[in-house]
Automatic annotation (TrEMBL):
This is Iron ABC transporter permease. Keywords: Cell inner membrane, Cell membrane, Membrane, Transmembrane, Transmembrane helix, Transport. InterPro entries: MetI-like, MetI-like_sf. Residues 41-224, 307-506 form the ABC transmembrane type-1 domain. It comes from Actinophytocola gossypii.
Length: 516
């Protein structure tokens, strides 16, 4: 199977190589015996837990707004909350550095929460919209207050979605790279940034590999919790059936929750608006400077060349990811409709999701360790960046297409086959029209994610083929007002592309963007 072969070569092999390197020369034992390691682990887990808690608290009111109300502007809310999730990490880091110039723990927690409100809101809203409101109404009729009815009836019913969302958010926050790199500086480091530091600056490959192994254990644990919660949520959705009808808020508590949700949505706009406004502080100087190489030739390519590199790499990565993701989704659906045991299908699904959770920095590091053994030494090839980006995007494509393909009524396919249609024609006439919108959504969503990918790309992009996010990070690392102006202008361009892509996703259809 092509997707599994791609996964084996460009994911499993590099990660296994990192594991072996981590065990070599006593790397793991030395790292585990160091007090500095456990301080890194404590800070990584602590900031991820705080960010997750804040994202859940902010996302719940927004989920209520999306799932249970019919107030005007819900489509705009979907766009606004999704933009932060797909913004490049360097853009978010720079936006919060503008708001909180000193950075620090508070800035890191706020920025990671900002990223992940959409995960909580859309995942929980997907289940909440299917809950039968009569159970809460019955509790109210028995004398329970609105708050008591929510905590005793609604909240337990939402537990599978909340657990699923919290596990994914924790995973994203624990492996956050660009945000911590920009806002933490030299004072605050996570496992992710320490792996990067040891590899790029200290050349401590065995120590970096050992830290990657420690992080990998935590990632697998979080993925396991997320997969279990997702299965519980899917079971709950199947039991509850069709979505309930949204209605206007009733009562003071409902209007208060809607007000809080709108306040959260407004706050999500603030960092983006501030960053774009900052890009015009010198008029159009930053945008004009993109034609050059920055203060004292900080870049080896111009800003516009870096943008072109980003566009080319994202295009190649998206094409590859959509092909691989579509093939994988079709195979998984075919196996689930056949006689293959459900456990086998679920295991394959989980394996295909692994790149979504494993550190992009670890994967990029693994490429540097392994890919010289392939013909042509891919480590020096410009194709390596799109390959790494496709590895990140492919699981997202699968998560978007798989639920839609599974929802297709098998009787339609059987009827087409009984009339003489070949399997290819059944796919073309039945499956494609149903999944077409989701496929377009996958293309747009995957493209913008690839465009802003930073973790693996920062390892793999050569100075003369730097992408725009990598160029922004290099500009910020060097002194000079011109570099700052260029960085803000480049981030504003990435924001514009992201907003346009998200708006297109929402205009194509209102299906769930990613089924976490």
């Amino acid at each position: 199977m092509v997707p599994l072969g791609f996964l084996a070569v460009f994911f499993v092999w590099p990660v296994v190589a990192i594991v072996r390197l981590g065990f070599g020369e006593g790397g793991v034992l030395a790292v585990l015996g160091s007090a500095d390691t456990w301080q890194l682990v404590a800070f990584t887990v602590g900031q991820a837990a705080a960010s997750t808690a804040l994202a859940v608290l902010a996302g719940l009111p927004v989920a209520y707004l999306l799932a249970r109300t019919s107030v005007p502007g819900r489509g705009l809310v979907r766009v606004v909350i999704l933009v932060p999730f797909v913004l490049p990490t360097v853009v978010v880091g720079l936006a919060f550095r503008t708001l909180l110039p000193d950075g620090g723990v508070l800035a890191i927690v706020l920025a990671n929460s900002f990223f992940n409100v959409a995960v909580v809101a859309r995942t929980v809203a997907g289940l909440w919209s299917h809950l039968d409101g009569r159970a809460a109404d019955a509790a109210r009729s028995l004398g329970a207050s609105p708050l008591r009815a929510f905590t005793s009836v609604t909240l337990p019913a939402l537990a599978p979605a909340l657990t699923s969302a919290a596990a994914v958010v924790f995973l994203f926050c624990a492996t956050s790279f660009g945000v911590v790199l920009i806002l933490g500086g030299s004072r605050y480091r996570t496992l992710e940034t320490e792996i990067y530091l040891r590899t790029v600056e200290l050349l401590d490959l065995s120590g970096a590999a050992a830290l990657s192994l420690v992080q990998l254990v935590a990632v697998v644990a979080a993925l396991s919790v997320g997969a279990l919660a997702r299965r519980r949520r899917e079971s709950a959705l199947r039991l509850r059936g069709r979505a309930s009808v949204a209605r206007r808020p009733r009562g003071a508590l409902s209007w208060t929750v809607v007000g809080v949700a709108l306040a959260v949505v407004t706050l999500l706009l603030v960092p983006v608006v501030v960053l774009v406004a900052r890009s015009f502080d010198g008029g159009l100087a930053g945008y004009r400077a993109l034609a050059g190489f920055g203060h004292e030739e900080s870049l080896q390519v111009s800003g516009w060349e870096a943008a072109a590199n980003s566009l080319r790499a994202a295009t190649d990565a998206t094409v590859l990811a959509v092909v691989l993701g579509t093939l994988a989704s079709v195979v998984l659906v075919s196996l689930s409709r056949g006689r293959t045991r459900r456990g086998v299908v679920e295991t394959m699904d989980t394996v295909l999701m692994l790149p979504l959770g494993v550190s992009a920095v670890t994967v990029g590091f693994g490429y540097l360790v392994t890919l010289d053994l392939l013909p042509g030494d891919l480590r020096t090839s410009p194709a390596l960046v799109p390959l790494a980006q496709a590895l990140v995007v492919t699981p997202l494509v699968i998560r978007m297409l798989l639920p839609v393909l599974r929802s297709i009524d098998t009787r339609l396919r059987q009827a087409a086959a009984s009339l003489g249609a070949s399997p290819w024609r059944v796919w073309r006439e039945v499956d494609v029209p149903v999944a077409g919108r989701s496929l377009l959504t996958a293309v747009a969503f995957g493209y913008v994610v690839a465009l802003g990918e930073f973790g693996a790309t920062s390892f793999l992009a050569r100075p003369d083929t730097a992408t725009l996010p990598v160029a922004v990070a290099r500009l910020l690392a060097r002194p000079g007002e011109l570099n700052n102006q260029m960085a803000y202008a480049a981030c504003a361009l990435l924001v514009a592309v992201t907003v346009a892509a998200v708006a297109m996703v929402e205009s194509v259809g209102r299906s769930r963007v990613v089924e976490f």
